[in-house]
Design brief:
Blueprint lengths: L4 H11 L5 H43 L5 E5 L8 H8 L5 E16 L2 E10 L9 H6 L13 E5 H7 L6 E12 L2 E15 L4 H4 L2 E5 H8 L6 E6 L5 H12 L3 E5 H4 L1 H39 L1 H9 L4 H32 L1 H12 L6 H4 L10 H27 L3 H5 L3
Parallel strand pairs: 3-7, 4-6
Antiparallel strand pairs: 1-8, 1-9, 2-3, 2-5, 2-8, 4-7, 5-6
Helix pairs in contact: 1-12, 2-10, 2-12, 2-15, 10-12, 10-15, 12-15
Length: 418
Amino acid sequence: MDWPYELLIGWRYTRAGRGGRRNRFISFISGVSVLGIALGVAALIIVLSVMNGFQKEVRDRMLSVIAHVELLDAAGGALPDWRATAAQAQQRPEVRAAAPFVAAQALVARGEDMRGAVVRGIDPAEEPRVTPLAAQLKDGPLARLQAGAWGIVLGGELARGLGVRVGDSVTLVTPGGQVTPAGVVPRLKQMTVVGTFDAGHYEYDNGLALIHIDDAAKLFRTGGASGVQLRLDDPQDARRVAASLAGTLGPGVAVRDWTRTNRNWFDAVQLEKRMMFIILTLIVAVAAFNLVSTLVMTVTDKQADIAILRTLGASPHSVMGIFMVQGAASGVIGTLGGLGLGLLVALNIGTIVPALERLFDASFLPGSIYLISRMPSDPQAADILPIGLVSLLLAFVATLYPSWRASRVQPAEALRYE
């Protein structure tokens, strides 16, 4: 196959490393540029993969406690007929299960200690079909939640903060007091701790309490279930299914999916990923623009060659193409090397991090502090492809000025002293 001579000469200049001290120095600078691009691309892939892993870990723990979609009364009261609403929602093929609930804010007190919490009234028979946490507690604490027994299941951090164990009593202070001749008196109710749970998510472990739905309806005076929780086959479809249900169920039912309930957290994570991408891309940009100095030195060193090519009939565009090939080849080699190194580390980070911990006798993620004892990683094509494209684009842009300068070399001036 007859390759264009611009490609052949450009590739030859890329591989050139012999022929004198100056050529070896240029080759060294070129190698440093390629290595810098590779390390920058690898760092981007590793960091974003770890951030994706942490996001997935937190999301999975969050979805073990909450439902994918919630159906609430638009007026803020109890659903008039939650069973009919649940049955209508379950007609959609994406909906796997439904369960009623009552949710309200309250204070949980033990002696002089008092903590705010979300008290969720659940049906112990139906809740395990909707949340994985309830499925884990089905044969334990949830089995001890009986209507009228006034039992309560506390998050582990909440129980430890109050200093209570199974069998102890706590006092629930509910909003909306009772009017008496002495004034407004808060409504209090003694509850027995029948169990605790640890979901691995601090927000819920420290601020969630579960009671029987009938007790919750009496305690908060809702007159019935305040909403219906839905579990879907795919939690990523929650926003689309919620929008469809909102149109089907009518204006009397408010539909809320888990992505909107936790919007602030997801927006913060996306902002962090975006900023990390920009910061680490600057590393790739610095390495890519090191190619400018490499190509400028090459153009200066190869002026005689350029002049000979021009006298043999090479056009300025052909000369420019030669040095663009050289710079682009360095960018492609660096990008491919970075992609390979980054994916190798990201896919094996579960092996690499424990090895480093043993080597340095340190724990990077103490389980008692972070509740996650391993370094999660989740490489995604949606991150990797833009990284590769940005790296190649920066390398290509870095070749433009030196290549243009090479095309402006005048043969007579270059060969005058040869």
